[in-house]
């Protein structure tokens, strides 16, 4: 792998691109991001609307499983409020999570496998930004995982009016 990276450096120099910067130690930042995401999921599981939405950046976006579900924070809160008010939001538990960071350590992106009560296996991915008060969710994308061998059947359902 090292020889591949060394071979790329001359190409970057010729192109005018900046070579990759060595990543800072991200162990503590990874724990912080995980704590935010875990608390966010816990807030939903306990129908704590205020705590749940406090984890979003002001310009945050939630992408749901339905193709029409692209919500900014106010729209998502309007959609979710009745569920929180009834004390039954949703329960997602991360079973695995991978986190990476920008070179300056102020942007994190992640993907996580989820165990869910209603949806079955799912995947979440997204972006967090580090602000003065800590990490905030700028984008979260919830997806259902479909085994490749079952996709033709799912496609048929999706194409049915």
Features:
161 residues; alpha+beta; Nuclear Transport Factor 2, Chain: A; six-stranded mixed beta sheet; 5 helices; 32% strand
Describe the secondary-structure layout:
Blueprint: H1 2-15, H2 27-45, H3 49-54, E1 56-63, E2 70-72, H4 73-85, E3 92-101, E4 107-116, E5 122-131, E6 134-144, H5 151-159
Parallel strand pairs: 1-6
Antiparallel strand pairs: 1-2, 3-4, 4-5, 5-6
Structure commentary:
This protein is of the alpha+beta class and 161 residues long. The protein has one domain (26-159): Nuclear Transport Factor 2, Chain: A. Helix content is 38%, strand content 32%. The chain is built from 5 helices and 6 strands, in the order H-H-H-E-E-H-E-E-E-E-H. It has helices at 2-15, 27-45, 49-54, 73-85, 151-159, and strands at residues 56-63, 70-72, 92-101, 107-116, 122-131, 134-144. Strands 2-1-6-5-4-3 form a 6-stranded mixed beta sheet. Mean pLDDT is 88; it is low at 1-19.
Q: Report on the biggest sheet.
A: 6 strands, mixed
The gross shape turns out to be globular
Radius of gyration: 19 Å
* Distance, first to last CA: 49 Å
Strand content: 25-35%
Pick out the low-confidence regions.
Answer: 1-19
Short description:
The protein has 161 residues and is α+β, with helices and mostly antiparallel strands. It has a single domain (26-159), classed as Nuclear Transport Factor 2, Chain: A, CATH 3.10.450. Helices cover 38% and strands 32% of the residues.
């Amino acid at each position: 792998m090292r020889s591949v990276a060394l071979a790329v450096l001359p190409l970057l120099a010729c192109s005018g691109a900046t070579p990759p910067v060595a990543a800072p130690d991200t162990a503590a930042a990874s724990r912080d991001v995980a704590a935010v995401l875990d608390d966010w999921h816990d807030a939903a599981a306990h129908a704590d609307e205020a705590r749940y939405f406090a984890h979003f950046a002001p310009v945050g976006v939630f992408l749901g499983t339905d193709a029409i579900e692209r919500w900014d924070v106010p729209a998502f809160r309007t959609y979710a409020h009745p569920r929180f008010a009834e004390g039954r939001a949703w329960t997602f538990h991360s079973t695995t999570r991978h986190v990476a960071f920008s070179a300056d350590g102020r942007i994190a992106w992640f993907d996580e496998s989820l165990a869910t009560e209603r949806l079955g296996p799912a995947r979440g991915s997204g972006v967090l930004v580090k602000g003065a008060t800590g990490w905030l969710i700028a984008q979260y994308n919830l997806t259902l995982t479909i085994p490749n061998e079952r996709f033709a059947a799912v496609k048929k359902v999706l194409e049915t009016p």
